[in-house]
Design goal:
Blueprint lengths: L3 H6 L9 E6 L7 E6 L2 E5 L1
């Protein structure tokens, strides 16, 4: 199984960028993550 880091690295938006992935609390049925790509925040759920 691929990790979230490996999956995101395959997307053009995140290729060749340093990613910081932080789990967020509060999801009811799944885990949500904040993904910072060189200072730009994204949400992955």
């Amino acid at each position: 199984m691929l990790t979230l880091q490996e999956i995101l690295a395959r997307l053009a938006t995140f290729q060749n960028k340093t990613l910081v992935i932080t789990p967020l609390s509060g999801g009811l049925t799944n885990t949500n993550y904040r993904v910072d790509a060189e200072g730009v925040p994204y949400l992955a759920d």
